[in-house]
Amino acid sequence: MAYTIEQIATALGARAFGDGDIVITGAAEPADARPDELALAMKPDYAEMLSQGHARAAMLWDGADWQAMGLEAAIVAPRPRFAMAGLTQMLDPGQGWGGGIHPSAVIDPAAQLGQGVSVGPFSVVSAGAVIGEDTVIGPQCFVGVDVQIGPAGFLREAVRISARVVIGARFIAQPGAVIGSDGFSFVTPEVSGVEKARKSLGDQGEVTAQSYVRIHSLGSVRIGDDVEIGANSTLDRGTIRDTVIGARTKLDNLVHIGHNCIIGDDCLICGQVGLAGSVNMGNNVVLGGQAGVSDNITIGHNVIAGGGAKLLSNVPDGRVVMGYPATKMDTQMELYKNQRRLKRLFADVAELKKTVSKDGPSD
Fold this sequence. Notes:
Blueprint: E1 3-4, H1 5-12, E2 15-18, E3 23-24, E4 26-28, E5 37-40, H2 44-47, E6 57-61, E7 73-77, H3 80-91, E8 106-107, E9 112-113, E10 118-119, E11 124-125, E12 130-131, E13 136-137, E14 142-143, E15 148-149, E16 154-155, E17 160-161, E18 166-167, E19 172-173, E20 178-181, E21 186-187, H4 193-200, E22 213-214, E23 221-223, E24 228-229, E25 234-236, E26 243-245, E27 250-251, E28 256-257, E29 262-263, E30 268-269, E31 274-275, E32 280-281, E33 286-287, E34 292-293, E35 298-299, E36 304-305, E37 310-311, E38 320-322, E39 327-328, H5 329-359
Parallel strand pairs: 4-5, 5-6, 6-7, 8-11, 9-12, 10-13, 11-14, 12-15, 13-16, 14-17, 15-18, 16-19, 17-20, 18-23, 19-24, 20-25, 23-26, 25-28, 26-29, 27-30, 28-31, 30-33, 31-34, 32-35, 33-36, 34-37, 36-38
Antiparallel strand pairs: 1-3, 2-7, 21-22, 38-39
């Protein structure tokens, strides 16, 4: 696919300068750009690398002197990174799958496929499933009994969606995502050692062998509109009620959402984050990579947790936390600074002890 500079600028709501008829077939970093590629030089540091490539045109920041950079054309946007979202959508070549239903796909007669639905090789769509129009189901996917997927969904390779999951419009699932696996929920006939330890915060004392009995997952998973699930992420179904993912929430790769969790709208959950069961999370929450959230806690709206944070108790609205256990970011930073001062503090105390010992009264 190819677009002129003028066409791209118009589509992005940006301004075009110079030769608007230059044809662009792709995007590239400044040092690697070919003459038919748009260089993404959205900061002065990036623009310094334009001389290493062969770009005729670039996407620049507002106020950039494109002519001084030796360019023939430029696209300038007030927020270049936001414009980049539209640009990459225009230039995305897709996965190269053919449309329609592949001969090797297995579609149950009781499934309902909307107009324009595509189903890739070796994929299965089960009885009672309702697939919205223009949804693309890639190769080797599984869609369970009575699943509902809204219009314009996109399932990449080997996505698994279990029975009775309900998904909104424009859903995207990256390769290997699993939605609707059973929750990790087990119980012992008697009070377990784990329950005792959690209550007492002490050692178990005398230990008795215990066996675990499975609690089945009767709930499912409900997902709002415009949600994206990363590769190899897993969302457990609820025990009685559904696990819920709010509209426009994005999950990175290798994220685990435990049973009964309720995730709000517009949340951003980064790679390798794990939520234990029954977490209630508000809107616009950001969890940095490898953050962990204990079970049965509430995270308020607009919370930000730094990478690796471990949230062990409720977090109020608007709080920014980090560390293990997670505390307010400014508090945690002060603790880190104090830890780094310990060696010097010990040395100072040792020196004071020597001084006191020398100057003290003698026998």
